[in-house]
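Reminder to self: tokens first, then the designed residues, so the page reads top to bottom the way the pipeline ran.
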């Protein structure tokens, strides 16, 4: 009987180890969607992946810094660097996963050629994505910019169409489409709003953009075995194939 109890106790202990949980904060699409696909891959390494969804760029970083999350998956490196500087956090990248090209959307226009003088354009209001959106518009020839590292509308040096910029929280940008002529929207929020970047966007960010989306942890946890297991799963051939097959160019692998 004692031997049986010892065996059962050992099996129970092994079961608890096998079910160690990795808690990751993510925005819904495509981040949480990719993580759902990754769950069986992480399970093979002996971990249970728990996903907490956020429609916010601040809370998941703070929760990761404070240890409430093991990691988060929603942002790119320029945003992370700016967040660390402003919030004095110590968050670091582990792996790059995918790139979400920004898109330029409109409900009222069929092409950028139809854009009228004085039109309103909504853009993200967080520093890195605002700069990124303005760079997209500059690449399209609608404005020119100075060489400030993070650009805002005051860094526009030429605005031939006298476009008027409305700065909005990134998750809310799709809701502005009825009130503006153009909106420059992150792909994850476009997808969440039912927009198809490859069909609905009037223009897309260049594929050589540096804004790959990354897995982020608190500094010092980069070599934690469960983080390493998650890194390996997110950068696996299976995930690369999943991204290519599922999103068909709306997002692209960054590894």
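Designed residues (255 positions):
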């Amino acid at each position: 009987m004692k031997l049986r109890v010892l065996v059962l106790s050992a099996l129970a202990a092994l079961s608890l180890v096998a079910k160690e949980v990795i808690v990751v904060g993510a925005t819904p699409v495509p981040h949480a969607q990719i993580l759902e696909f990754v769950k069986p891959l992480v399970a093979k390494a002996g971990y249970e992946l728990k996903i907490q969804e956020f429609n916010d760029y601040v809370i998941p970083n703070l929760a990761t810094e404070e240890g409430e999350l093991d990691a988060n998956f929603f942002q790119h490196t320029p945003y992370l660097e700016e967040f660390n500087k402003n919030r004095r956090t110590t968050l670091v990248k582990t792996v790059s996963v995918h790139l979400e090209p920004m898109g330029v959307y409109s409900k009222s226009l069929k092409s950028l050629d139809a854009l009228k003088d004085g039109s309103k354009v909504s853009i993200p209001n967080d520093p890195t994505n605002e700069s990124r959106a303005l760079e997209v518009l500059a690449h399209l020839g609608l404005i020119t910019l100075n060489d400030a590292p993070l650009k805002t509308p005051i860094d526009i040096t030429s605005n031939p169409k006298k476009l008027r910029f409305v700065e909005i929280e990134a998750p809310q940008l799709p809701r502005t489409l009825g009130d503006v002529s153009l909106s420059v929207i992150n792909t994850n929020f476009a997808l969440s709003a039912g927009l198809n970047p490859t069909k609905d966007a009037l223009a897309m960010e260049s594929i050589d953009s540096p804004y790959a989306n990354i897995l982020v942890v608190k500094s010092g946890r980069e070599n934690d075995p469960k983080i390493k297991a998650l890194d390996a799963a997110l950068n696996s051939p299976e995930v690369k194939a999943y991204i290519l097959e599922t999103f068909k160019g709306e997002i692209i692998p960054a590894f």
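The chain has two domains: 2-100+211-253, 103-204.
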